[in-house]
Design a protein that fits this description.
alpha+beta, Metallo-beta-lactamase, Chain A, seven-stranded mixed sheet, five-stranded mixed sheet, about 30% helix, globular, disordered N terminus
Length: about 425
């Protein structure tokens, strides 16, 4: 237990239980709370009063000091086995949230998707002070049993502060220490947690990325960090003075396998790729991670194409659908944000980009007002037309097709028919 944490520890004390009977026919439950907040002396900052009865010989009030923290004890006589069962139930129920609360920073939800597999959901929308940049989904996998297990983290979060808090939380809740981090594409909210994970780990962490992703990080991250700091406002302190850690282990080629994952590169724009990752566990449907390419539903809206070539995004989504076709209708996809998506998600995304570009091209050819609200069309998912990203995608689609339309040669007029 480190200083600076507020931890509630429930301890069942059943006198004589080891001997098969309560001592004196009575038993007690003791509730201890660590109230230390970087106390400079063992008694500093401690307060509290004793409530209830004490067992024979027990002192009242503060009964001890643990790591410079007050230990408050409360004893109530009850039936031993009933109390032991109730206290154990309470301890098991409270352990995960209390362990997460003990770590500095916002607690990151851990959603179990299967044995040894957790989804760490993102907050919907853009980075800002309130969400501290937690706008990219992460995936955690335990590979192998026991102390020799490898713990894979796909994506590392938006800042070193997030990485430190996540390392603390995973240790407390799962007994896990991340051994391998994968940076799937060069988005700051997805790759800047590595420095904090490494600092908190106390042991080396293998940091993987495709060579093209690593190169993009080297070029773009310094400017991306500046823009992210502006969006985070007062939470920009999470970034610290040196948030960038470039991957030391770099993958080559268009596809391959790393640990338990198959991977492929797909283009997002000229000279910029994303990597998609497939996990196939025995007896479970295939799970794909496709950040930078897919976007989950549940209020999130359409995918974000603000820095992408939309025609390439459509092609990459179609390619992903073809890659996953063999996995059948049970396949699931995790995108940049939102919950897991069904098997038809890649094709839905491809249709969105194709239809968006077609609508923009038709509007430019008609001479429509480019400041008009973006259109809806048959087949557009419910709610997407009103989503903020749809309007931004419309602006980008307009810009990308406008040059093509204006540069296209004007058809020569048909010759007038000769008079008979």
């Amino acid at each position: 237990m480190g200083h600076g944490c507020d931890v509630l520890v429930v301890v069942v004390v059943v006198a004589g239980l080891a001997a098969g009977r309560p001592a004196g026919g009575r038993s007690w439950v003791r509730i201890q709370q660590d109230t230390c907040r970087r106390a400079t002396s063992p008694a500093a900052g401690c307060s509290g009063r004793f409530l209830g009865n004490t067992p024979p010989g027990a002192a009242r009030g503060v009964t001890g000091v643990l790591q410079r923290c007050c230990v408050l004890a409360q004893y109530k006589p009850q039936i031993a086995r009933r109390l032991a069962g109730l206290a154990l139930t309470l301890l098991l129920a409270l352990a995960p949230p209390l362990a997460a609360a003990a770590c500095r920073g916002l607690a990151q939800p851990l959603v179990a998707l299967g044995p040894g597999l957790w989804w760490l959901p993102a907050v919907a929308g853009d980075s800002q002070a309130g969400n501290r940049g937690r706008v990219s989904n992460l995936l955690l996998l335990r590979e192998g049993p026991g102390r020799g297990a490898r713990w894979w983290l796909l994506g590392s979060g938006p800042s070193p502060a997030f990485g430190r808090a996540l390392a603390c939380q995973l240790q407390r809740q799962l007994g896990a220490r991340v051994t391998d981090v994968i940076s799937p594409w060069a988005r700051p909210e997805l790759v800047l947690g590595v420095a904090g994970l490494q600092a908190a780990s106390g042991a080396p962490i293998r940091h993987w990325a495709h060579a093209e992703v690593a190169q993009a990080m080297a070029v773009q991250c310094p400017h991306c960090v500046e823009r992210l700091a502006l969006r985070l406002g007062p939470a920009a302190a999470d970034l610290g003075a040196d948030p960038i850690r470039l991957p030391g282990l770099r993958l080559q080629g268009d596809q391959g396998r790393l640990g338990p994952f198959d991977w492929w590169t797909l283009p997002r724009s000229a000279g910029r790729v994303v990597t998609v990752w497939r996990l196939a566990q025995p007896g479970r449907p295939a799970l794909w991670l496709a950040p930078g390419l897919l976007q989950g539903e549940g209020g999130v809206g359409p995918p974000d194409g603000r820095d992408a070539d939309l025609a390439l995004l459509a092609q990459s989504a179609q390619r992903l659908a073809a890659l996953a076709a063999a996995d059948g209708p049970a396949a699931r996809f995790i995108g940049e944000q939102g919950p897991p998506l069904p098997a038809d998600a890649p094709l839905q995304h491809a249709r969105y980009w194709t239809d968006l570009l077609a609508q923009a091209r038709a509007a430019v050819e008609r001479g429509d007002d480019e400041t008009a609200p973006p259109p809806a069309w048959p087949g557009l998912p419910a709610g997407w037309a009103q989503a903020p990203w749809h309007a931004l995608n419309w602006q980008r689609a307009w810009r990308q097709v406008e040059a093509e339309v204006l540069a296209a040669p004007v058809p020569a007029p048909s010759p007038a028919a000769s008079a008979p």
